[in-house]
Amino acid sequence: MEAAAGFISRAGRGIENPILEQGGSARELERQGGKLIMINIGDPGIYFRMPRNIAWAFKKAVDEGHTNYLREQGLEELREAVSDRYKGLYGIEFSGDDVVITQGVSEALSFMNQAMIDPGDAAVIFRPFFTEYLTYLKLSGGVAILPPLDEKRGWDISIGELDDALRSHAGKRPKYMLITNPNNPTGTVLSEKAIREAIEIAKDNDMFVVSDEVYDELLYNGAAFTSVGKLAKGIPHLLLNGASKNYMSTGLRIGFAIFPEQDTKTQALKRTFIGMAGARLSANTPSQYAMLEGLRNTAKHQEFIREKAAQIASQSVHAARLVNETGFLTTVQPNSAFYLFARIHLDKLSLRDDREFVELLLREQKVQLTRGSGFGMPGFIRIVTLPSEAVLTEAIRRIKRFCEDHQR
Ligand SMILES: Cc1ncc(COP(=O)(O)O)c(C=O)c1O
Asked: Does the C-beta of 184 come closer than 6 Å to ligand 1?
């Protein structure tokens, strides 16, 4: 064991994914019988079939022999289609040359940290955050500055908290500020005002801005989404998006890294991404053809997203109501993506923390979800609202019973 610990790098030893935690116990419980409810994985591919036209285009690409490596930067037509998408949706202009196709947003997050972070460098990541952000930052030896989002204002950015976090950071100037909008795990969008102010702070502190917008079309309850690309004109930034959420095609592993500005930093980062993309030769070729169809066929996509967003909205609103009725948990009303982030009122329970909550919940009620501390926010849980209303109802009924069993 000790020899292995010395063999694996320090960074490698620290890797964890709180979303997949307890997978072994969950499988063991299933083997023993009884229906396990998993509301821990935000993979729409498990619950919805990917759009038929995208699946068809994937098969066609294979049949037609598009199974070779593509240019490291990605299929030119696909990069142009990404540019058309942002222009069509938000009026943001950049060329296909300013896009790099990655193997999911995940790979872009990995490239981004390898490209910008040397050991000891800092980055600003708002919490609660998507788990991978910290994983990749840490793999590069980086240090996180973690201002909390404001639960009381629908998980919007708190400029006061951002200022405080920057002021109390003693080390070097942070390299980048990472914004997630809409947010995983909170299921909410940021206000235009807060984004504007945060970007100004980034500019004043010479921080590069990164915006992960992978859920930007999954909106409901009147949510108004503003792309950072619209507000950060003239400020060095990177936009991230992809196939996984809006197109519910997680298995394609396609991400878009977009470098809309022509300043030295943004373009140097783009060149480094292309270099890294070259080091792994090519993103998945049939997937790039499949995504090209997904982006070009806007009529099919509009129909698909309208229907799916409506279904997710109704499931999420239903689940939020039930959570708020438990008497032990409260959640902000979600308006995007497919998550609820609920506060556990630990003062009413004889449980230590969110970790004990999720571990005992799985054992006693066979419901698997993710602890808030995994997203940098102890005392909360994340519920994925992709399962049907019936499944969510049963899951929250079990959670309520669990809380009653552990009432103080
Ligand atoms: C905010 C956010 N960004 C990125 C990803 C990963 O996306 P991809 O499947 O494109 O790697 C996820 C997945 O859950 C996510 O929630």
From this structure: yes
Same domain, 311 and 204: no
- CATH number (domain holding residue 318): 3.90.1150.10
Same domain, 37 and 62: no
Q: Is the CB of 242 under 6 A from ligand 1?
A: yes
- 185 touches ligand 1 (CB under 6 Å): no
Is residue 385 pLDDT above 70, yes or no?
A: yes
Distance in Å, CA 105 to ligand 1 centroid: 6
Residue with tokens 């619950």: 47
Q: Are residues 74 and 10 in the same domain?
A: no
Q: Evaluate whether residue 333 is within a structural domain.
A: yes
Q: Which two tokens stand for residue 32?
A: 């023993």
Does 228 map to a domain?
yes
C-alpha to C-alpha distance for 311 and 16, rounded to whole angstroms: 32
In the chain, how many domains are there?
Answer: 2
The rounded Å distance from CA 59 to ligand 1 centre is 24
Question: Any idea what DSSP says for residue 152?
Answer: G
Rounded to a whole number of angstroms, the distance between the first and last alpha carbons of the chain is: 41
pLDDT in tens, 65-80: 999 999 999 999 999 9
Do residues 43 and 188 both lie within one domain?
no
Mean pLDDT for 357-381 is: 96
Question: Same domain for 284 and 376?
Answer: no
Contact predicate 207/124, CB 8 Å: yes
Distance from Cα 347 to the centre of ligand 1, integer Å: 33
Tell me the C-alpha distance between 38 and 151, whole Å: 25
Which atom of ligand 1 approaches the CA of 254 most closely? Answer: 10
Handedness of CA 263, 265, 266, 268 (dihedral sign): positive
196 and 291 fall within a common domain = yes
Question: Is 408 a member of any domain?
Answer: no
Residue 178 CA to ligand 1 centre (angstroms): 14
Q: At what angle do helices 298-325 and 285-296 cross, to 10 degrees?
A: 90
Q: Give the domain extent around 332.
A: 2-49+301-403
Residue with tokens 């790039």: 288
Going from the Cα of 244 to the center of ligand 1, the distance in angstroms, rounded, reads: 7
Judgement on whether residues 226 and 362 belong to the same structural domain of the protein: no
The predicted pLDDT at position 35 comes to 87
Burial of 236-245, coded b for 16+ CB within 10 Å and e otherwise, reads bbbbbbbbbb
Q: What angle do CA 258, 45, 374 make, to 5 degrees?
A: 75
Q: Is 105 in the pocket of ligand 1 (CB under 6 A)?
A: yes
Residues 153 and 293 grouped into a single domain: yes
